[in-house]
Amino acid sequence: MTLLIILLAVLALIALINWGKVNAFLAFLLVTIPAGLALGLGPGQVLAAVQKGLGDTLGSVVLVVVLGAMLGKLVAESGAAQQIAAVLVGRLGAKNIQWTMMATGFIIGIPLFYNVGFLLVIPLIFSVAYQYRLPTLFVGLPLLAALSVLHGFLPPHPAPTALVVLFKADVGLTFVYGLLVAVPAVLLAGIFYSRTLRGIVSQPLTGFVSEPRPTSLLPGRLNSFLSSLLPVLVLSLVFSLQAILPPSGPLAPVLAFVADPGVVMLLSVLVATFSLGRGQGKSMPEIMETYGAAIRDVALLLLIIGGAGALKEVLMASGAGTVIAAGLQGTGLPPLLLGWLIAGLIRVCLGSATVAGLTAAGVMLPTMTQVAVNPNLMVLAIGAGSLLFSHVNDSGFWLFKEYFNLSVRDTLRSWSAMETIVSVVGLLGVLLLDWLLPLVSG
Description:
The chain has 442 residues and is an all-alpha fold. The chain has helices at residues 2-19, 24-38, 43-78, 80-92, 97-109, 114-131, 136-153, 158-166, 171-192, 221-244, 252-259, 261-277, 284-317, 320-331, 335-350, 353-364, 375-385, 395-404, 408-441.
């Protein structure tokens, strides 16, 4: 009966969001409360679990998500991301366009949310394709595949960050493992698969092509790279020092403090405020307006994350974990594969990678205390599943279709297939790491 209630709750969530067009946060509440009552919790227990789930989850991720949005917005508006892309194209040459675009996607995708990154790089994709007389999809897919993979797999992006917190994973190890999985996924989906799509003709609509900023208005090259990549640079330095220095040394507490994702992002925003804000002639009110717009962009996303945390807490408070674990053992499916399947199913039904990942986490989390699973790999498995087969119910599908001016059929052949390849290769990479890590550590 417990499994049936959980299944009905997930189906109800899908129906409310997909067919009922209900706000995702409201849908989470409408599903969570009846599910808690049906699982045997009293009204007071349900409300307490909802409040605890909301508070714990938001308290853990709100700093990273909001500060990450601020940094991404400033990187985009200052022209730093455009400068990075221009440097890469100029240095690596025309013969390596696809590799250059893939590298650009990785660099831009680390600090930027997907939609911001997408809109930022569209003029670059179109201008490069025109300059070198190359098919637009041949140029654009490697970059967009990298943006998508980073958005789905790696902190400090919202869903992976929330999953790291929910599963109590290590953000550094998750990032490293995520890169190991992301590279082959982008190679296959972004570079090699795009070479099979030369027959698809993309003529972008004039109204969707914006002019890049004048070179004279762009920040300096070193400034652009350092300001945009400061979170990664700081974390890399801290993790290297932690690996070298003794864990009980006098610097250990300081390194642990600086390694906190919220502290890293706050430091990065403070530096960017002056390097990409004041340093580019912006006034403090202008910079604060940019940050305010960034907060508005992620406000609903934060509520969705909180709603998923409420569902997770209700499932845990009801004791559903034991039942789910028993059902998991009965299926014979490895937990990592099951997490990927649940996230993939919700992604296909709902269209939202964030909702898919967070909902799958809420369902899988109770099993983590019953079955031995590497939490870092579970984050990546669910992240990979959340990217499966983007189609007509996903806003990203239509964003890609309209900007590239493609038919629905050609968008399915290009964008949807690319996302599916990324998802499947990501799963295979996670399973391979799950097999290799015990051998290496042993």
